[in-house]
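User: Second chain of the day. Same drill as before.
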Amino acid sequence: MAAKKKPAKKAARSKAVESALADLVIANRILANEGVIDAFGHISLRHPERDDRYFLARSRSPELVERGDLLEFDLDSNPIDPDGRTMYSERPIHGCIYKARPEVKAVCHNHAHSLIPFGVTGNEIKPIWHVAGGIGAEVPIWDIREEFGDTDLLVTNNDLGASLARKLGKHRCALMRGHGAVVATHDLKATVFVAIYLMANAKLLKEAREMGQVTYLSPGEVKLTEQMNFKQRSQNRAWEYWARRAGFKVTAND
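Assistant: Same format as last time:
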C-alpha cells in the first residue's frame, strides 16, 4: 500500500503578524465587553505585511473569538484557507472598504443599539464630547433600499459592500439604516476607540437633544480633539483599560 501523504504544514507567520492577530482577538473581546457588539458584528484587520489581504474571525460571537478562529481573506473576501470553517456572511463589508480605502487598517461592523434610532430617523450624529471627536464632523447614513430595493439588510456580496464603501467615502463612520454601523480607521486600536465612542456619543446626544438646544464640537474642535485622541499615549491608555476589563493583562505607556 502506498504511504499516506502527510498534510502540508501551514507557513509560520512572522512575530509582527502574530502580535497583530493577538490584538485582533483582544479587540473582539473588548467590543463585546463594552456592549458595541453582542452575538453579532465583527472587527477585521488588514494584513500587516500584505495590503491585499485581511484577517477576520470565523462565524462566531466576538466575545468567544480565539486565535484559532481567525481566517485570512483576499480583498474580494475569499478565504485563503477556510479549513471547513463557517464564515461571516457579511465579510464583503470589510473587503470592499479595504479595497476602496488603502489607508484603512481595521474595520468594525456593529449593531450598537444607541445608533439604530439615528439611522432610521435621519437625525444626524455629530460629536458633542471631546473623546468622540474621532468619529468626525459628519456620519453619513447608508440606506440599502435606495439602490437595491427590499433586502434582508445584510451586506452579503461585493455589490452591496461597494455601495456601502461609497457612502462611507472618506469618513471614519457610517450608519446603516435599520442595521447598525461601520467604523474604518488607520489602526486597530483607533477603530475600537472610535466604535466605542460613536456608540456612547449617540446615547449622550439623544439625551442632550431631549434637554434642549445642543452645542456640537466645531470643525476646529473636531480636528484638534481627534489629533489628541489618536496620539499613541491616549490610544494605549484606553486600550489597556478596556483590555483589562475584558480579562487581558495588558500594560501600556511604561
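The radius of gyration is 19 Å.

User: Great, on to the next one.
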